[in-house]
Amino acid sequence: MKIKNLLPKFMAILIVIVVFASCEEDFNTIGSDIVDQNFDTELYDEGNVLAYSRKLLPVQTSDLPSYQLGTYTDPVYGKSTVNLLSQVTLANTDPDFGDCTQLDSVVLYIPYFTEEETDSDGVTSYTLDSVYGNEPISISIYESGFFLRDLDPEANFEELQKYYSNQGQTFDNFQGELIATIEDFVPSGEAIVLNDTTSLEPGLRVHLPVDFFQEKIFDMEGSAELINNNNFREYFRGLYFKVENVTGDGNLFSFDLSDGDNDITDDARINMYYTFKALVNQTCEENTDDPIETTALLNFNGVSVNTFQNELNPDVASAIANPNINEGEENLYVRGGDGIISVVELFGEDLDGNGVADQLEFLRDQEWLINEANLIFYVNQDIVTGGDAEPDRIIIYDLGNDAFLADLSVDPTSSNEPFEALVDHWAPLERGSDGNGEFYKLRITNHINNLINRDSTNVPLGVVVSQNVTEFDFQDLENSQAPGIDNVPASSILSHRGTVLYGNNTTNEGKRLKLQIFYTEPN
């Protein structure tokens, strides 16, 4: 299973943004084209940039496009443990299991994200995607007593109920019977061979105790609890996956519980394998025929929630505890999960009190044609451990309107693979010959053109890590925090990585965060 590319969702958002951005086409020309038209290209890099970081308040971790389980130790930020609470539902409600039923085995299967390759001999191999770390963890699976609602009663049952990253202790309080423990678990990229003709894509596959599901499901045949999934979810409130007793760095993996394609063969599920046969003279013993083998399914297509437990590096916690929102910071911290966001504010103060930053007024008066504008974020290699621990992508968005910038709509690189998508607007990490990250370039040409030539509102911008830049949903914060942070891109929550960037207040002039504006003036 591959991480889903959300191109259809992107196209829907694209249509909306294109309408918003269509008026910008007059001057959104690359500088080289303008030079051909006898214009001079100049660089303005004196724009006032102020940036600082904030630890996010708890974020919504229900209704995510994918989920995580495990533990990850970041060399800068410390250890994070991610647990999962998930409803299960009956694939077939009001089931009739037949007569002379014998439940033989119960198997949980959660497929990993993988890349599949078949050679010329027809042999298929897999490469794990979104699996981080290779040290063992222990996963305990509990029955949960916490009821996960679909709809929010405080919103008159018209909105989805939201659950948040900090609710682990609440779920612990409703922790029920221990169903199973998976010891020394490390994800494997090998296919799971069931028999000579059948195999499964790599995934977590474990046998669960038959007695528990016999009592919980099969003994309840014909009851009101199984007649529909509303009743069933009230009766069997879900499974709580907890990562426990981790002594090393452990591992973390991402997965899609239900990909929505109506094909259960690649969805997470619980198979309950059983046999039955017809009664003869009202008894099972007199039927000497071989029993019929079949399976009943439990799906994971209800409500699911990730919870995060972070052991944040005390040095990082101290650095972001009281950000300098007036002068900016020397270092900027960005981390995924329920992590850390950096805020960028452009063009300085409004000293004359007319509602527009003085520097922005100056730029508007110049009547420049904006050819290109970039924010360059340099990695602080004195702090960051390079290589695979660094996030390949960071993204920028409009904090004032909880939306992406207009530049998203005109990026020509919307490819099928997330790693190669949107590289014009959100360029991947530029790495040196040693493989360590040097800088990120975020192109915000249309946004700056709107501010200078279209009188758009100068909103604060948010910078976060992204796991999948083709995921365009936002997740709410439990509470708003300054300067108007109400939600964050879901792709940031799905990311486990973090980095440290030079801010606007660093003494390292060559690595200082700056805004580059390339402009032209008619001769």
From TrEMBL:
UniProt-listed InterPro entries: DUF4270
Signal peptide interval: 1-21
Signal as UniProt keyword: yes
Q: Which UniProt keywords apply?
A: Signal
State one Pfam family annotation.
DUF4270
Q: What is this protein called?
A: Uncharacterized protein DUF4270
